[in-house]
Every structure is written in C-alpha cells, then in structure tokens.
Amino acid sequence: MEYPTLEDTVGNTPLVRLKRIGAGRNNTLLAKLEGDNPAGSVKDRPAMAMLAEAQKRGDIAPGDTLVEATSGNTGIALAMAAAILGYRMVLVMPESASEERKHAMAAYGATLISASKEGGMEEARDIAEAMIARGEGKPLDQFANPDNPLSHYRTTGAEIWQQTGGAVTHFVSSMGTTGTIMGVSRYLKERNPDVEIVGLQPEDGASIAGIRRWPEAYLPSIFDASRVDATLDIGQFEAEEHMRRLAREEGILAGVSSGGSLAGALRIAERAENAVIVFIVCDRGDRYLSTGLYAPEV
C-alpha cells in the first residue's frame, strides 16, 4: 500500500457555508478554510510548488540554502517545505511579525533575519536580494515566480469550482503577493467569464498582515490588474472586528486578513442577489494570539 506523505496533504481544504453571519437577498457566503493546510495557511500551496518545481528543473538541489523575504505565512510554509525536501531556509521578515510566526519558522529549522518595522516588507525584500547577489543563497522569489499563481490555478481555483458545482459568482481575496487571486481568477474566468474577482487592499494607514498596497517599484511582477474586476479598500478596525466575528459567530479562528476578506464579501452581498460568494480564510488565528487582538472585551 502506498501511504501519503505530508506534502500530499496540502490543498483540498474545506469550503463551508456561514450560518450566523447573514448575507441577505438569498446570497450565500462560503469560506475557504486554508488554515487546514499542514503548516496552517494558503501559502502551503505555492511554497511546496515553488520548491518542487525548481527542484524538477534542476535550479536547486537538496542541501542548498534558499533565501526569501516574507511577512509571515509564506515563511512558515517555506520552512515546512524546506524541512520536507531537505533545504536550508533563510527568511527575512519585518520585526513586527507576531511571535507565533517567528517561533513556527524557527521550529521548522529556518534561520530568521529581521528587517525594521519601519522598513517593512520593502526592506526585507531589499535585504534578501542583497544576500542573493552576494551568493549567500538561491532565490525562490514568490513575487515574480510563476509557480506561485500556477499552484492556485491548479489547486485552489479548481477546488472552488468543484466544491460549488460551478455555481460560484464572486471570489474575494486579500492581495499581498497576489499569487492566490491571480491563479484563482485565471481558473474561474476560464470556466465562467462572468465570475467577479474582488481584490482587497488596505486603506491608507492600515497595517493588516497579508494585505498590501505596494509602491509601484515593489509591485509583484506576477500581478496582472486585468485579472481583478474590483478592488476594495479595507480598514484596520473593519478587518479586526470581522476577524473576531468569524470566531465568535461562526467558530472560525482566523487571522486579520481573513476578517478583511469577510468584510469584503459582506460588502459584495450588499449589492448582489442570489450570489454565491467565496472568500479566502487564509490562515489560523492561533498565530496571532500574542497580539492581543482576541483579548476579551472590557
């Protein structure tokens, strides 16, 4: 008998209907629970794909050192993938990342390098690029690697189409690296061009892990604006409040960007009718507990 290995468990995550948070006008809200992936986020999909495909091409070989900039979830997923396939992983991340994220990466054996809170992901990317230029490791470059959106085209998009029986009318996702929304959009639009793809970005001044508004010079090259039909700005309080609603009203413990996705889905529901709205719950909330965002209300 051929038994599965850990990488075989990536993907095929549940799609569940919200029961208590209503969408009105005969709309249906469906949450794609990516926290059920083995390392706890949607980033498990591109992490395994980027390493596996690079290894198939001969770009990397077990024992190599890999360097990647990350705000958190990709780093955890890459650390897991590196442990599975036998690579040394060096991750550069803003020092503002939650302690749970840092500890998870270290638990998988990754080496962590901090960028300043003020410099954020832009500084982290600059540090990683400088390290690679000095020959201190090989890049995967989630921001430019076509295997990132391709993993979502092959898996996430296909799963959503199958799980809804092709009934999905709207897809809502935060935009960070943008791999998820690019790959899912391509798949769904090929099946039904009328599916509306909605991307989320932070309002000015908001700092929401997993949702980015990139300066032009740092815009991921995998991003194609023509694949996004509408863009919504999400506020900090709005994302955090809806994150807590997911836990307290639906029993879904998730991160802040997932709260933003719910908020975006509810905005769509305000103008839609008879819609099947799928939104991404990109990770689990237990990696945010130290931030105090789930602290009991006074």
Automatic annotation (TrEMBL):
The keyword Chloroplast does not apply. One of its GO terms (molecular function) is cysteine synthase activity. It catalyses: O-acetyl-L-serine + hydrogen sulfide = L-cysteine + acetate. Signal peptide: none annotated. InterPro entries: Cys_synth, Cys_Synth/Cystath_Beta-Synth, CysM, P-phosphate_BS, TrpB-like_PALP, TrpB-like_PALP_sf. Pfam families: PALP. Its cofactor is pyridoxal 5'-phosphate. SUPFAM superfamilies: Tryptophan synthase beta subunit-like PLP-dependent enzymes. Keywords: Amino-acid biosynthesis, Cysteine biosynthesis, Pyridoxal phosphate, Transferase. Pathway: Amino-acid biosynthesis; L-cysteine biosynthesis; L-cysteine from L-serine: step 2/2. The keyword Transferase applies. Its EC number is 2.5.1.47. Residues 7-283 form the Tryptophan synthase beta chain-like PALP domain. NCBIfam families: cysKM, cysM, PRK11761.1. PANTHER family: CYSTATHIONINE BETA-SYNTHASE (PTHR10314). Belongs to the cysteine synthase/cystathionine beta-synthase family. This is Cysteine synthase.
